[in-house]
Amino acid sequence: IICFCKASPKIRGIKFFLFSILIVLIFGYIEGHRYGRGVDWLSYKERYEVIFDLLEIQQPGYYYCMLILKYLGFDSIDMFIIYAMWFMLSIIVFIRNLVPIDVGKWMPFLSLYPMMMHMENLIKEFVALPFIFLFMLYIIKRRYIISILFLFIGISIHTGTLILPLLFALTYYFNKYTI
């Protein structure tokens, strides 16, 4: 929807901004209030509630994201809402930056990842993928040092997000050498 709205000459500037904010708020509210859905929901809720007593830190990036939200006074439902909003906002920024580059050739890449997973199991990915999107945008702009920094931040939050740069590379290769 965002791709087509961004490409439409009628939806520009403030209209696109307002439309984007509406999507972020709706997605964040619906996905953030997914009480008890998803295989990992309860474990992340419990981890968040006892974050100050955790003895084992599996992925430091995610731990520090939870810690910051806990220090700011957010409860577990707020945490899920913020993660979902952060994820949707990053998709909008990513697509907005791709449109001038020719979003059509990136559609296979953008459509593959959501089909691989159910949204209900994307708690840490909601936090990690925005950094992976930034990694990819800076790779496109040929700013490799900052792109690697974003890749390491994303991986420190969730190592499973490594699949996205691989899909990105395959899409890039496919577009460059076959189209």
Structure in words:
With 179 residues, the protein is mainly alpha-helical. It is built from nine helices and no strands. α2 runs antiparallel to α5, α5 (76-102) packs parallel to α7 and α7 runs antiparallel to α8 (144-157). The radius of gyration is 17 Å and the shape is globular. The model has no long low-confidence stretch (mean pLDDT 76).
Number of helices, counting only DSSP H or I runs of 4 residues or more? 9
- N- to C-terminal separation? 24 Å
Unreliable spans are none
CA radius of gyration is 17 Å
Largest sheet features: none
By secondary-structure content and strand pairing, the structural class works out as mainly alpha
Could you tell me the number of beta strands? 0
pLDDT average, as an integer? Answer: 76
In short:
The protein is an all-alpha fold.
Write out key terms for the chains shown.
mainly alpha, 0% strand
Which secondary structure elements does this structure contain, and how are they paired or packed?
Blueprint: H1 2-7, H2 13-32, H3 41-49, H4 60-71, H5 76-102, H6 107-116, H7 123-140, H8 144-157, H9 163-178
Helix pairs in contact: 2-5, 4-8, 5-7, 6-9, 7-8
